[in-house]
Amino acid sequence: xxxxxxxxxxxxxxxxxxxxxxxxxxxxxxxxxxxxxxxxxxxxxxxxxxxxxxxxxxxxxxxxxxxxxxxxxxxxxxxxxxxxxxxxxxxxxxxxxxxxxxxxxxxxxxxxxxxxxxxxxxxxxxxxxxxxxxxxxxxxxxxxxxxxxxxxxxxxxxxxxxxxxxxxxxxxxxxxxxxxxxxxxxxxxxxxxxxxxxxxxxxxxxxxxxxxxxxxxxxxxxxxxxxxxxxxxxxxxxxxxxxxxxxxxxxxxxxxxxxxxxxxxxxxxxxxxxxxxxxxxxxxxxxxxxxxxxxxxxxxxxxxxxxxxxxxxxxxxxxxxxxxxxxxxxxxxxxxxxxxxxxx
Length: 344
Hints:
Blueprint: H1 19-46, H2 53-76, E1 79-81, E2 86-90, H3 101-130, H4 134-154, H5 157-160, H6 169-176, H7 182-185, E3 190-193, H8 196-228, H9 234-257, H10 259-271, H11 276-287, H12 289-300, H13 302-318, E4 321-326, E5 338-343
Antiparallel strand pairs: 1-2, 2-3, 4-5
Helix pairs in contact: 1-2, 1-11, 1-12, 2-3, 2-11, 2-12, 3-4, 3-8, 9-12, 10-11, 12-13
């Protein structure tokens, strides 16, 4: 790697660049998010209707991984990164237990990849339900899941075993980012890898493979539902189609939420662009993915939404606010719900 500075000439550091702002924002997010995580977990375990029992376990696994990744980023690890270098240091709880920086970095990245596998599990679950000959796939399910979770870890093993000598880490960082403030440099700087492209290629390869698997299951589910359509009632087919659409939206919308931060981090690493504000904000956005996904789950899944609305209706009634709910005669959309509020 050439000894070239990545610092823009006119870059100005502000509070948004500082580790103090970063940790404050992450902890504030966690304070808001954790009660929501617990609420959604309770909903999945205790309020999942009979019609959704077959997907309950997959939803719970998916919810666990999305929440765990958020908690890793906001409390346990709190990775303060200095992109475009693959360097930085943790500010979270795990450092107090003597867990190495490299181990924390691999844990964070492998957990994010495992979250993608849990998303894949929702599609696989629908495929298994609609598959006619379940015996063969039932034997392959556990090895298939084990293989994908192994890939989630293996994607970053090359980086783990190629962690460079840290003797001159600070000198290396200052050669490329001489503009870093004393506040940022006061932390125990650690270089996870000298070649960022190695990590990007390895992670992209595994992520692409998982996405291809997800698309394959999506089309297999669609085909199976069309085949079963002749054997099921029209009402059942419509219900399954609505549920499948809700699952797809529940996965796609939060994933799109992550597009901006991941695109920036890729751009920073690929084109050696430095902006500590954007880096901090990107990781903060990533740490809110589970919160956003949990709130969206409460909204998109009608059964959970009804429980939440009923709770608020009863709470408002205790304060003298009566709410009259009006439903459309025919529900053609999974989003439809009308409410009028009257205060007495």
